Amino acid sequence: MSLKPFERLDAIAVPITQPNLDTDQILPARYLQKPRANNFGEYLFRDLRFGKDGSEQAGFVLNQTPYRDGRIILAARNFGCGSSREHAVWALHDYGFRAVIAPSFGDIFYANALKNGLLPIPLPEPSVLAMLDTVQAAPGSRMVVDLEAQTVLAPDGASHTFDINAFSKHCLLKGLDELGYTLGLLDQIADFERRFEQAGS
Amino acid sequence: MQAQQAPRTLFEKIWSRHSIMQRPDGQVLLYIDQHLVQDGSAPAFEMLRQRGITPRVPSRAFATPDHYVPTDSRDLATMADPEKRQMATALMQDAARAGIRSFDLDDPRQGILHVVGPEQGLSWPGTVIVCGDSHTSTHGAVGALAFGIGATEVCQVLATQSLWQRRPKTMRIAVDGRLAAGVCAKDVILAIIGKIGAAGAVGHVIEYAGSTIASLSMEGRLTVCNMSIEAGARAGMIAPDDTTISYLAGRPFSPAGKAWEEQVGRWRALPSDPDARFDREANLSAHEIEPMVTWGTSPEDVVAVTGRVPDPAAAGQPQRREAMQRALAYMGLTPGTCMAEVPIDRVFIGSCTNGRIEDLRSAAAVVRDRKVASGVAAWVVPGSGVVKAQAEAEGLHHIFRAAGFEWRYAGCSMCLGTNGDIGAPGQRIASTTNRNFVGRQGAGVRTHLMSPMMAAAAAVTGRLSDVRQLMAGGMA
Ligand code: SF4
């Protein structure tokens, strides 16, 4: 399956100041049975974005003008913790987000994001908190994400380098997926399996 | 042959034995022994079909529906939403087509995967176990490396029986000392999360150790490992010992005969070597642990039941203050309120955290000869059909029913509510589950996490209550 290659991103950053924002908030469980063909962007942050009657919650950041077109999430610690639902990543991606910057991520969310064209960018907490302050002081601030160079350009002009494993980077840049690659290793897997099972497992 | 090696942790022993190969970027292709498949797996099977692939090693997978099953009957037709009804059916069809062993809804052994796996002897020490569900960490209690994965990874495991993994760091959390009466495994793990935080173990595999952990029954260990993910951990594990081995002996899918002897020999060699090093260490004293209850919307928002609702004004960081204010507004709580004064509307005893026989026994002991407080709706949802049958053989269902509890069929039920078992907005629930997230048990529902004993005490008093006081006769 091929994804769209990840391109240099110059976009509005949406500040999410709440730490431990769990995947239940990103994509409520009542949409989990929807087939992937749905536009999960509609359900993104559903109960934070909309009231019971479906009206927009004016206080929620994505309902505020400069942020509606945001493509980068700038979040507090432990973003995407909790449930393993990949739908949370689909929701962010379908809405239009391509990168999430945070001091830390739920481990499963991080893995899911890389497999779906959503770039998770871990940066030191003090840097992220400073960026959150800047962005909140100047709503609509843009940030630039350059995956090739592994840098984030903050609104104040400072450049931050981030880590990503080389393989995931390659896949994202080329729009490749890991399964295709792993399927090419089935012979090695079978060899291992034979030895493993002979050893008694 | 490994006698001369550097000391290794339990995690390292399992990791290295399952490493098929390493990529230049350091990621390791891990062989998966056991793949547990739940009824949210339709997207993964769909991905597989789109590629025209069939599951590679169906004998290393096991399925049972749990998230999308009714718990008031065993009739799927009673579920109103056709999309939801379809999820359990889809799993059974996908499993049957792939030749994956499964317990269907009408099988008396059906239940929550994380209850069924250990109970059936499907979860073995020293193995790598995955499931498209974050609470897969539960199985680490038998001394396995068990972790949750997303749909794309479920698809990869079905296709290749392997998974690329970044090597996690290790963390040992030692709990020592004797737990006081009324304090149990749930309180231990809530206290740990309260101490290290919901992100406290991100990127790490936790090994729980120390005399308190060693003294826990298998059920208690499963409860502890279950909530590892709530501390952000990749997995949680406990070294196999006599408790583990006697628990697994004679289970339907445990090895038997000569194979049992061989496996037990291996399992005995799994515990971390005495000088093994962990990337991080944390310690807790069992004496300090009281019955715990959450006050907020993250499992880290936890206090002893003798405590009070904390004051955001006292929080150091502005971010933390804001998060606390938001949580208290959602929970409808005022700072300074005694936790043991908070009235509740519903009680839920069940889930993969606390839906096992020992949990039901401990709750029943509190409920016996008492009545559910008026206006409170209380449910018991056993974690599996086997737990339900065992409880009924012991007469526990009579105790619960006589007190006014509903006694239901096995499933995830109100832990997540994807089957329609949810609370009404504003309702406050004393719950033995693992997540008190906003909206977890229904939009606007307020969840307080606690042990089965504490939930039982809440049921009969109509408010959050210290079970120790209730049992000592200090409460009506
Ligand atoms: S009981 Fe709750 S936490 Fe456990 S598998 Fe079911 S929904 Fe998930």
Describe the 3D structure.
The complex is a heterodimer of chains A (201) and B (476). Chain A is of the alpha/beta class and 201 residues long. Helices cover 33% and strands 15% of the residues of chain A. Chain A is built from eight helices and seven strands. Chain A has helices spanning 23-26, 46-49, 87-95, 107-114, 125-137, 166-174, 178-183, 186-198; strands at residues 9-16, 72-75, 99-102, 119-122, 142-146, 151-153, 159-161. The longest helix of chain A has 13 residues, at 125-137. The model of chain A has no long low-confidence stretch (mean pLDDT 95). The longest helix of chain B is centred in the first third of the chain and has 17 residues, at 82-98. In chain B, strand 13 (292-294) and strand 14 (302-304) form a beta hairpin. Chain B is built from 17 helices and 19 strands. Chain B has a five-stranded parallel β-sheet. Chain B has a five-stranded parallel β-sheet with strand order 17-16-15-18-19. A four-stranded parallel β-sheet of chain B has the order 11-10-9-12. The mean pLDDT of chain B is 96. Chain B has 476 residues and is of the alpha/beta class. Chain B is globular and about 60 Å long. The chains are: A alpha/beta (201), B alpha/beta (476). At the A-B interface, helix 4, helix 6, helix 7 and helix 8 of A face helix 2, helix 3, helix 5, helix 10 and helix 11 of B. Iron/sulfur cluster (SF4) is lined by residues 66-67, 112, 114, 133, 135, 351-352, 412, 415-416, 433-434 of chain B. Iron/sulfur cluster (SF4) binds next to helix 12 of chain B.
Computed over alpha carbons, the radius of gyration of chain B is 22 Å
Q: What structural category do the secondary elements of chain B indicate? A: alpha/beta
Shape of chain A: globular
Oligomer: heterodimer
Strand content of chain B: 15-25%
**Overall 3D geometry of chain B?**
globular
- Counting DSSP E segments of at least 2 residues, the number of strands of chain A comes to 7
Distance between the termini of chain A: 33 Å
Runs of chain B with pLDDT <50, length 5+? none
- Which ligands occur here? iron/sulfur cluster
Instruction: Considering residues with a beta carbon less than 8 A from a beta carbon on another chain, report the largest interface and each chain's count.
Output: A-B, 57 and 76 residues
What is the helix/strand order of chain A? Answer: EHHEHEHEHEEEHHH
Radius of gyration of chain A: 18 Å
Walk across the major sheet of chain B and give the strand order. 5-4-3-6-7
State the helical fraction of chain B.
Answer: 25-40%
Major sheet characteristics of chain A: 7 strands, mixed
